[in-house]
Predict the structure.
Amino acid sequence: MTVMGGSAGVAPGALRAAALILPPAIWASLIVVGTEAMVAVPPLALTVASWFIAALTLLPLAISEMRGRLGQLAIEAPWILMLGVTGTTGFQYLWFEGLSRANPVNVAILTPTLPVFVAVAACLLLKELRGWAVFSGAVLILFATLLLATEAQPDRLLSLRLGSGELLILAANVLMTVYTIGLRLRPTRLPAILFLWAVITAGLAPLLLIAALVPGIWPGTDGVSRHVPALIYLGVVAYVIAYLLWNYSVTVNGAALSGLFLYLQPILGIALAALYLDLPVHWYHAASISLALLGLMCVLDWREVLRRGVRT
């Protein structure tokens, strides 16, 4: 069986563990690298520009892998289109648009719904990670994340109101869930880089058309040029590298486990914010981190992950 375009055989334990940890770590780094660009560049322009950079980065390698695989590309084209629209540009545009409209506290509370959606869908549709230990770990992780998001103020949950921005965040998380489950329901037979390039290009095409028809979405040359480094980081690191690892993790570790590890993102975000932005660290940060790590230990057998690997 092909693992996201890789060769059959043994999936090294260290690589499987890295694929679980690095995507949320990379996405957590956006709190330092991408915040200003997310505020300054309109959501549609930000989505189109950053994903265009991702597609352009992968293009030379994708071309080299295309020979003899055009037929398989054509066979998988409808599925690739669905994955592209849901998991790349569609997800990111809705998330950026929601972020620009929603209350920041509500965004922090709603962001953890993505791991919940992925884990629940994987348990129901893929029969992954069942059992009381897994359920208990997931509850611990969710509680830890809500403790962090509300800054240990439960009344913030009661004051949560779903406006258009909040609904867009939820819709984005639903789309990413569809993408993640889709990777498992119908594994690709294409090489990993060619597959990701095709998915990004398929998702980018309709947004490019919309961007061409919608006036005033670009902030101007000066506005974009000030954020070129952040856009490159988004396209190359947060999209290309993180998505290659995410796709691999979903394939070899499962959707549910990969989804639950997304809870590392706010934990690592705290560390990066404290280190680079000089933000204070409070008691609930430590409590949240401890509970989340305990929950992850409940759902994960580290001895299995760190072994030589699993047969695929």
About this structure: Residues 1-10, 305-312 have pLDDT under 50 and may be disordered. The radius of gyration is 19 Å. Residues 106 and 159 are 9 Å apart (CA to CA).
